[in-house]
Fold this protein.
Amino acid sequence: MMGMGNDDMLFEELPAGRVYRLDVFTGELTFLPIVVSQQTLPSQQLSCIGKPQIPLLPSWVVEDEDIPYPILQAAERLYQHLNHAVRRRVMDAPIIIRTKEAIHQNQKQASSVAVLFSGGVDSVVLAALCHNHVPLDQPIDLINVAFASSECHGARKVVDPFSLSPDRQAALLSYQEMKCQWPNRHWRFIAVNVDYETVLEMEDTICKLISPLTSTMDFNIGTAMWFASRGLGEIVDYDNGENDLWKTQMLKESKHLRFCQKSSSASNKNGKSSDSFGPCMTRGCKRLAERDRCRFGVCKVCCSSIFQRRINQYLGGRSDFCHYHSEMAKSVKSKGKKKTSVQENVSKSSKVKQKKNKTETPSSDQVSHVQKEEKLLYQSCAKVVIVGIGADEQMAGYGRHRAIYNKGGYEALRQELAMEKSRLWTRNLGRDDRCISNHGKEARFPFLDDDVTAYLNSLDITEMVDMTKPQGMGDKMILRLVAKRLGVTQCSGLVKRAIQFGSRIAKCSEVDRFGSSRNASGSAKHIRGKTTAVD
């Protein structure tokens, strides 16, 4: 740490695995490495755990999925290690009862554990495992954060802009499934809705917490972590009624959620491989494309915005040269019309009920998936916050991992994962831990448990992923199988979204800083203050 005046300080992350000693008289900093006894190494403990005796096809595996047996066996063993890792982190967690603020019945039930709940497979698996070890008389807080800004929506009238967040929609979908799977558990869903003006008010505090990191991406992630761990939001509850079941179906068909497309899998039912699914042929584009189906061999965005648009400009008319992407666009429009008609029918039926009961009912909106009735403002008092950091870096969950595999195969992917695991402590852990502990809470990371990391390091990459299968299925496949084993299947087919994109903080920040998302750069240095102009 170097002094730069009263307010500005330069910090440097200290490497982990050491015991530091600071001489207060001379300012000299020395350290000693932490020596781990060979008797307590997690890798030594793994050899004592026998391989689980499981059948060739367990009941929790879908029969039409061609799952390699090594991944199937590794998933069962990963479940055991994760289950023990979560147990160690939630047992004997303290309970803080705030009687003065406990006005509503839900608020009187104090929770000891909260989960940062994005609705993805990482957080859903951890929440489901918490159910195994947290007493039933204690609720488990599921905290989901979403951001919105008036500049992002422009002139569009949106009843609930926070419901457009992909993480909010995925979290509500998984929350509904978990309530049906474990009805005896009180799952308390806390929707943290943050306006971007509030983010600007806390900008200086967050920048100090993420220091020495200064990029726009780090600020966005740190902001999401800070507001989510604060746990101040609205309580959302589903009563499994007809209206809520309709909303669940709407969430499944939402355009903001990306599910695995099994039709684009690289292997068909007959076991014959296909090269139709691969990187887009457009130079500089990193998206995936179904090259055999598209006439130009590119992704949907490049096909419509580059090839077909230029051809139509040249011909001076409108023509669909790529039938595959044209039919896909028409099907999306037809689904939108069907949703509108369904919502109109629901609104008509609600008006009839309103006349009969002579009571006022809230109006529905096409883009709103969350009830707009009065909700309770509640702040989670849980001191233990379960975070899913480390799953993607160890099990190839990010989209960039697939791009690396497409270029260099599994060997390039092994090198990338090794590099990401080595820098995890300096790129993620220090920043996120400071943002969470700023609220007097302790972040705990089950995916970084010694036994879990040692076991994943003992596996080959081919025992964790199958990149011949599409996104939402082949990536992080071992963890998706654990989710199916637990009985939460909605999240097992979701394509990964980073927290800054799923919560929409990146969209709000990019519009504010760069004018639009296209001009944004996550690696650019974050500049304090509202600067909508771009040089």
Summary: The two ends are 33 Å apart (CA to CA). The longest helix spans residues 323-357. The chain has a mean pLDDT of 76. The longest strand covers residues 140-148.
